[in-house]
Amino acid sequence: MTKLVATPGQTIGPFYGFALPFERGEQLVPVGSPGSVRLHGTVYDGNGDPIPDCLLEIWQAAADGTVPDAHGSLIRDGYTFTGFGRTAVDNVGGFSFTTVEPGPRPDGGARFISVVVFARGLLNKLHTRVYLPEDVADADAVAADALLSSLPENERGTLIATREDDGALRWDLRLQGEGETVFLTYPER
C-alpha cells in the first residue's frame, strides 16, 4: 500500500504568514501613484468574527483593460504592473491593497478583480470576485456579465465593493453564514 503525503493544498494552516507573503505584495502600484485606489476590508468567519490568519491574492486587468503578462510578479520595482497582489490579513482580519481600477472589458461586462482566499480550516483555496459599484449600477454591464446576471440580487451584493468618500473601495468577505460571499468553482481545474 502506498502512503500518501499531504501537500500544501491539503494541509490546514496557519502557515501563510511564514511562507507566502513577500515584500510590498499588497502594492500592485506604489501608494499615491496617479490613478491608484485602495481596496480594503475584513475577512469574517461563519460566526461573524474576524479571521486573523488568512491570506488573500488578487488578480486583475490593467487600467486600460488589458491582461498583464509582465514577468516578476513577486518583485515590486515600482514601474511594472503585473496585475497580481498578495497580502496576509492583520490580527483583526483586515486587509488592504493599493492597485488601479481595472479597465473596460471587451465584452462590456462589469469590471472586477479576482480574489483567492487561503484561510484556516480550508482544505483548498476559495475563488471569488469583487466588482466596482459603478459598473453594477449599469444594467447593460450586469447583463453582459455571466456571473452577475446569474445571481439573485442578495447574492450579487456580496461581490460588490462600496465606494468611500476618499475614493477607496471597501469590500468585506464572509466565509460562511448570513451574507456569505459568493464563491466560484472551476471544475476544469
TrEMBL record:
This is Protocatechuate 3,4-dioxygenase subunit alpha. Residues 13-106 form the Intradiol ring-cleavage dioxygenases domain. Keywords: Dioxygenase, Oxidoreductase. Belongs to the intradiol ring-cleavage dioxygenase family. Signal peptide: none annotated. Coiled coil: none annotated. SUPFAM superfamilies: Aromatic compound dioxygenase. Pfam families: Dioxygenase_C.
